[in-house]
Amino acid sequence: MPKSPIMCFQSHIFRSKKGTATEKARALERAIAFNSQNPFFMVSMGTLYAYGRSNLNIPCKFAEKYLSDQKPGNVILLVSGGKTWHVQYISRDFGSRRKTELSIGWRAFARDNKLEEGDVCVFELMKGIGVTNSHQSLGKRSECTSISKQQILKYI
């Protein structure tokens, strides 16, 4: 049986070191400067996201364009050191709009990676079977690898 195509998000974190307005602005500037040939979206960690008190919303336009043919289910969040988190990926209708988000498991991921208010995450969409992508981000080398019949979100 052939492997299903996988969806891989390589994610980059831009930390707001002291949580001051200046540091938050610098983190946002660094994230905005991120460039890739692959589609990506950016999420600024507010209090609810950073401390896992809320699901992580994926921007509607990004979800409509790139995720509309994906079935909700489980995804794997993978950090550069190889540790993984199983997170539920869901889509729900709200009136005429569809809301797509990471839910169960997001709290553990945010806590374990010490996300803080003001940090900015950029999620870069990688596609393919057996994708290997070497990418420099904040001085770290990372790879997205295939996991049969799973979606992968890669977080650095």
UniProtKB/TrEMBL annotation:
Q: Mind listing the GO molecular function terms for this protein? A: DNA binding
What InterPro entries does the database record attribute to this sequence? B3_DNA-bd, DNA-bd_pseudobarrel_sf, REM16-like
Q: Where is the TF-B3 domain?
A: 41-142
A cellular component annotation (GO) from this entry: nucleus
Residue ranges that the Swiss-Prot or TrEMBL entry lists as coiled coil: none
Determine if Nucleus is one of this entry's keywords. yes
The answer to whether the entry has keyword rRNA-binding is no
Chief place where the protein resides: nucleus
Identify this protein by name: TF-B3 domain-containing protein
User: What organism does the record attribute this protein to?
Assistant: Juglans regia (English walnut)
